[in-house]
Amino acid sequence: MAASEDSLRRALVEKQSTIESQGNAVRALKASNADKKAVDEAIEKLNALKLEKSSIEKQLQASVGGNPGSSVSKEAFRQAVVNTLVGRLFFIPSFKIYGGVAGLYDYGPPGCAVKSNVLAFWRQHFVLEENMLEVDCPCVTPEVVLKASGHVDKFTDLMVKDEKTGTCYRADHLLKDFCNEKIQKDLSISAEKAAELKHILAVLDDLSAEELGAKIKEYGITAPDTRNPLSDPYPFNLMFQTSIGPSGLSPGYMRPETAQGIFVNFKDLYYYNGNKLPFAAAQIGQAFRNEISPRQGLLRVREFTLAEIEHFVDPDDKSHPKYSEVADLEFLMFPREQQISGQSAKKTCLGEAVSKGIVNNETLGYFIGRVYLFLTRLGIDKDRLRFRQHLANEMAHYAADCWDAEIESSYGWIECVGIADRSAYDLRAHMDKSGVPLVAHEKFSEPKEVEKLVITPVKKELGLSFKGNQKKVVEALEAMNEKEAMDMKSSLETKGEVEFHVCTLGETVTIKKSMVSISKEKKKEHQRTFTPSVIEPSFGIGRIIYCLYEHSFYLRSSKTGDEHLNVFRFPPLVAPIKCTVFPLVQNQLYEDVAKIISKSLTAAGISHKIDITGTSIGKRYARTDELGVPFAITVDSAASVTIRERDSKDQIRVNVEEAATVMKSVTDGNTTWADAWANFPHHSSGSAEE
Ligand code: AMP
């Protein structure tokens, strides 16, 4: 796709220059009073060239801005989806009667039902399948926890301010919008310029504050609302601060993620799990981020539901017992090398990516595969789902590897799930701050003889030389790793003294032979103690749901062709209501039958809705298609009813007593609509639809 866009841009530049030459030729002919036939022919040629140019422009426009599989523009498509979502109360801007607040949304009745179905499937697919330990921790978190995790110091985005009005913007978003707009709307830019802008988009997350600021200046980007100049980018902490209790002396924050609640409970969870690794803990809950300028509707909000898994594993063995179940999956993967070299994501076999070391380890690969299955079973289009590896700087320094599940929507590719191997960072950070050992043990079947490094600082000697700094020198000596210690030992033996840098003092001191003894001793050990590594899949539930809305939405013409009807093709798994029950016309007998069916649906645990309004059946079908209800039962006799499937509009006829059983089977996924279609008489009723 990139190649054809590239060649179209080149063709456009060439065509423009041919048009200019032809324009000159026409002018020259006119100036030389050439005969009319020659002038007309030259003009005709010019017009033909202009037509060719406009056709290239159209192709280029479609290649950079069209909605896949549709001629409707992305914005118009999005507007149709959002209008339906808002119109049918899937979501509502929060505090709407007071004007609303950017980045805060309510879920209305069908939105709540979809969310609860998605979460139920998440629990089934992850918590139940992997025997995870689910916890539920508070949103209000004391400062010390988020200080230890690094959020107080580093949970920031780069912000720029309108220098005159003070309005704030996210620096990377302004640069991203500029690049996208140029690529999509300025068809006159050269293929080289387009490639440069695309490269910036590819490495956007990798740019430092200085690099971002320099690009904003280079491209002359100004405040979008006023065109005023912008400040240099600077970090803004995204956490909502609060205080716990009335005194104001105990600072806290609304948690920006749920993970920390799991880390601080590691010791107890490990014990609960019989002191065995690997195990995973999971948490579903609200997260809060004071986003700088949330714009993309439900995609970037200030309070959202996260579903997070922390899988604790031995750092020396990151194999996974169920890895083979996902190794053969094939889907779009986008490793960092391909991003940097300007290629696009390619369909890749997961097992190959793991065996070639593109994905760091089996457990990380296992979760990537499970996330793929989760999202596609929900109804995410597999061709608009890719796994993108983080670029080197984008990834935290301690992380071993990191992949985002990105879903393509009308806003572009959106990070919906982050899957990271965070090594032992989080547990170490909380162990250092709290002093509580957050470690695991591996018991040896037989005691092992090991050589242990023993560093014994001679405190009396050190005290005489370093006085008040003695403690820091002792700590630094004890913290040496094996290589540092053995190097010091050999220097002390040959030279009698050695220069030693003490970080906590910020200076280099001289250590003499009499100040420390370093040796290796043989010891019998019964177990190994280590800090587990953590593999963390983190799901933004709201983002997944919004992308699902876009992937499920389509328009179909009414039978008369004069109206477009909105439909969500949700699978029964996520549909907010599984079926509707319609008496065909208002009459007591049909309503009584509808009530009997409703009772049996309730007993079978199937969410449904009765609509006894006298509205035409076609209108009632259209209303529920717009809610994505997959099946409609229409009562048109006392003995049997029809069941209509939403997307095909096909209908079967079943006995009243069978209706709930058939519904249960197809909505639970035990059978498919194709099975029902094969097993029951078909009902054809043109009149029923309209
Ligand atoms: P992070 O911890 O930043 O990797 O975020 C984890 C997940 O939370 C992401 O993959 C997103 O799906 C989701 N997420 C992050 N920020 C927001 C936001 N402002 N609004 C909605 N979802 C978000």
From TrEMBL:
Keyword vocabulary terms for this entry: Aminoacyl-tRNA synthetase, ATP-binding, Cytoplasm, Ligase, Nucleotide-binding, Protein biosynthesis, Transferase
Reaction equation(s) it catalyzes: tRNA(Gly) + glycine + ATP = glycyl-tRNA(Gly) + AMP + diphosphate
Domain called Aminoacyl-transfer RNA synthetases class-II family profile: residue spans: 216-572
Location of the WHEP-TRS domain: 11-67
GO cellular component: mitochondrion
Subcellular location field: Cytoplasm
Family in the record: Belongs to the class-II aminoacyl-tRNA synthetase family.
Name listed for the protein in its UniProt record: glycine--tRNA ligase
